[in-house]
Amino acid sequence: MSDHFHTPGDGHGHGHGNRVVSAVRHAFTPHSHDSADRTDSAFESSSRGLRVLGVSFGVLVAAAAVQAVIVAMSGSVALLGDSLHNVADALTAVPLAIAFSVGRRRATRRFTYGYGRAEDLAGILIVAIIAISAALAGYAAITRLVHPQDVRALGWVAVAAMVGFLANEWVARYRIKVGREIGSAALVADGLHARADGFTSLAVLLGAAGSALGFPIADPIVGLLITVAILYVLRDAAREIGRRLMDAVDPDLIDEAEHIVASTPGVLGVGSIRLRWIGHALHAEVEIMVGHELSLVDAHAVAVETEHRLIHRLSRLRGATVHADPDGPEGTDHHAALARHRHAA
């Protein structure tokens, strides 16, 4: 066990008196994880997210600009669809950047949990942008099927396809890596979106190859395939954002939290554990059972240690509300007055 943890049971050899002093001090002064440490961590996570978005936005806009020039030269609707997709992917950085910036604000009496859920609102805009790019790409492909047209500068179309693939794959790796490190599901989803864009860029090569072999219809057909690929990305993005809006979490996180709480000295039982994402940070509500013979100060110390261990050991957790229930006396229902309200729903 790390010496950093101060459990109410062992007290690091300081005895009951110091436990009381520590608990009383905590009651009147903020816990270190509740103030500067959490603020600094949140600020650094948002700063990293903003850096990722700025760099990836520049890379994707540059790639889309190269592709747009070659679209004008070649008339390829497959490449047009890919270029539109890259523009849409670059634009998703804008609402995310705004959300990261807004999420830095401190909680207020109106927004008591802070502004982290701005990321979820940004996710809705991202889904809308992806849907618009799918509609534009599909319209261009269907129009070309109805009114066939030869594709020119096929070599340049192939070059543009490779530019799109390389740019998107680099951006995807960058976003996914940092998104996982800072706990931002929206950034990870955006990275997966970029990876899908990279593979649609490779599909443009098929259209160019088909046109080179004398099948000009291959270009709009690939354009339609790209539209279908965008729709799959749209489905996955909508599912991810929908889960976040519904406060879904990975069940493995609940299992991990239960293990951490149950192993805390002084915890005799674990009640409900609720986790929710607010932006790219986790928040928890935990119910524990403690000995009914404990004083209020000692029961509070157990709750404090439970929160302390959760913050240190559960990745991305920024805060926890721990409710301590006495384990007796036998036959006593300490929540009798709330029974009707809890079962009303």
TrEMBL record:
TM regions (residue ranges): 52-77, 83-100, 121-141, 153-171, 192-211, 217-234
Membrane topology category: Multi-pass membrane protein
Subcellular location: Membrane
Domain Cation efflux protein transmembrane, residue spans: 55-246
Keyword Transmembrane in record: yes
A GO molecular-function annotation: zinc efflux antiporter activity
Family annotation (Gene3D superfamilies): Cation efflux protein transmembrane domain, Cation efflux protein, cytoplasmic domain
Descriptive protein name: Cation efflux system protein
Record organism: Planotetraspora thailandica
